[in-house]
Amino acid sequence: MQWAIKLDMALPSPIRVILRGVGQVFFCGNAVTGLIFLIALYVGGLTAGLAATVGVITSTITAYLLGFSDDDIDAGLYGFNGTLVGPCLFLFLENTPLLWVYVVFASILSSVVLAALIRILTPYRIPASTSPFVLTCWMFMVAVYSFDSLSRGPLLPSPDIPSAIAGADIAPIETWFSAWTASTAELWSVALSKGVAEVMFADSVIVGILFLIGIAITSWRGAFMAVCGTIVGVSVPILLGANQTVIELGLYAFNPVLTMMAIGWVFLKPSAGTAFLALLAGILTVICQAGLANFLAPIGLPTLTFPFVLVMWMFLFAAGISKHWRET
User: Fold this and answer.
1) Is 228 found in the same domain as 113?
2) pLDDT at residue 185 above 70?
3) Closest to 25 in 3D by CA, of 200, 278, 193, 213
4) H helices of the chain, where?
């Protein structure tokens, strides 16, 4: 929307860059969208909002001090991984004053990892996307086992064999269909909106709705792909008989949301063909997430957004040798 672009450009440069960094979590390089996202995070919880703020500011300042690309910094590309690092570590680790220092160090590392991956992947026209966030958070989560002053939180998965985790609380497929067809539209809307909200670790319907509004301000197609992604992330696990609680929390949906936005809107030329390709990628992301969850179960790590990153990378690498797909 033109008014959002004009308002974005009217903001002072430091504020514009920080807010664009928040917006880039959903590929939206617009400060107005980023402001809506940040407000949504504070609505979801003060700690999450503060952690995201500390993360995006730290990672952006790090990129500036280390002399990384001014264009990339201005676009907010060095801010969104830090935005995710903060809320993620506060969700999975024990909340202590020292954790704020931990978040600062993790945000610094996320910018360094991003710069390294940009250098590696740019010749192939492949984005690093949220992979620096994933790699950084995995490292910092595992590191707490060596530090007496830091500890894992109750939501960080306990190391266990995959079958014990995957088999918990799974109802027969007949139960799934009867339960969901009899449920109200409200139940569906809750699961769908939470699927968008969980991209930034927010378990809130209101946050999910605000995220969609923010995306729509930047692009209606982007918002449409996000909605399609969360539909895929709810319906496909139901059909495959996944854990009902996990589905209702939107935990199967946030990765397909990002995958479908990336393939169907951002990195390939928008068309009916790429929309279908995005749908296929979204479905495969659900399966990839289940596989990675079982793969990571023995070491007690969450998948985070790695299923999205992995599927997106494979599809974009494949696009480079296909005569049918056209990159923008």
Assistant:
1) no
2) no
3) 200
4) 2-10, 13-23, 31-44, 46-65, 70-74, 80-92, 97-121, 131-143, 162-166, 173-182, 185-197, 205-218, 220-240, 244-248, 254-261, 272-296, 306-319
* 148 and 163 co-located in one domain: no
- CA–CA dist 207, 184 (Å, integer): 21
Same-domain status, 228 and 129: no
Based on the domain organization, do 200 and 311 belong to the same domain?
yes
Tell whether 21 and 150 lie within a shared domain: yes
- Residue 84 belongs to domain with CATH number: 1.10.3430.10
Cβ atoms of residues 160 and 102 within 8 Å: no
Domain count across the chain: 2
Provide the token pair at 51.
């952690």
pTM above 0.70, yes or no: yes
**Tokens representing residue 261 in the block:** 């936005």
What are the C-alpha distances in Å from 200 to residues 2, 24, 70, 83, 183? 26, 12, 26, 8, 27
Cβ–Cβ under 8 Å, residues 81 and 110: yes
Q: Residue 56 and residue 52: Cα distance in Å, rounded?
A: 6
CA 25, CA 79: separation in Å to the nearest integer? 9
120 and 51 both lie in a single domain: yes
For residue 56, which of 103, 92, 89, 123 has the smallest C-alpha distance? 103
Neighbour-count burial for 52-71, b at 16+ CB within 10 Å, e otherwise? bbbbbbbbbbbbeeeebeee
Is 162 found in the same domain as 151? no
* DSSP secondary structure, 60-114, as one string: HHHHHHTT--HHHHHTTTTTHHHHHHHHHHHHHB---HHHHHHHHHHHHHHHHHH
Q: Who contacts 104 (Cβ-Cβ below 8 Å, separation ≥6)?
A: 54, 58
Which structural domain, as residue segments, surrounds residue 103?
1-156
Q: Tens digits of per-residue pLDDT, 232-274?
A: 999 999 899 888 788 888 899 999 999 999 999 999 988 888 9
Q: Express each pLDDT in 188-218 by its tens digit.
A: 677 778 889 999 999 888 999 999 999 999 9
Q: Which residues are 93's β-sheet partners?
A: 152
